[in-house]
Automatic annotation (TrEMBL):
Residues 1-97 form the HTH arsR-type domain. Transmembrane segments: none annotated. Residues 100-111 have a biased composition (Basic and acidic residues). Residues 100-120 are annotated as: Disordered. InterPro entries: ArsR-like_HTH, HTH_ArsR_DNA-bd_dom, HTH_MetalResp_TranReg, WH-like_DNA-bd_sf, WH_DNA-bd_sf. Keywords: DNA-binding, Transcription, Transcription regulation. This is Transcriptional regulator, ArsR family.
Length: 120
């Protein structure tokens, strides 16, 4: 099972994020990825290994080439991690909205008019 820590570490490198973006558009072999990148083919292979370990990328063999594609398993781990934050943020927002509403409701209650009870 892949963890969010592993996925976040893998995505900490700009080249790996770029490779993942390319693969999100179209599955590709290393050579095609390397042609689109400002890094060498061996460097692309090393980055793909890290992405595979994080389950962000999978591969299948087509003839003599390995074709890489995005693996939803790693993305799912990342999404679950971020959804946890989103749930916390929404809960805190709802609490704040309730507090703000309660505070404004307390101010809107009619009180004695400032001129009442003061004979002029």
């Amino acid at each position: 099972m892949v963890t969010a820590d592993v996925v976040l570490d893998a995505l900490g490198d700009a080249s790996r994020r770029l490779i993942l973006e390319h693969l999100a558009e179209q599955e590709s072999p290393v050579g095609v990825l390397a042609a689109r990148m400002p890094i060498s083919r061996p460097a692309v292979s090393q980055h793909l290994r890290v992405l595979k370990d994080a389950r962000l990328v999978s591969e299948h063999v087509a003839g003599t080439r390995r074709i890489y594609r995005v693996d939803p398993a790693g993305l799912r781990a990342l999404r679950d991690y971020l959804d946890g934050f989103w749930g916390i943020v929404l809960h805190r927002f709802a609490d704040l909205a309730e507090e703000t509403h309660a505070a404004s409701a307390g101010r809107d209650e009619p009180g004695p008019h400032p001129t009442e009870g003061n004979p002029s």
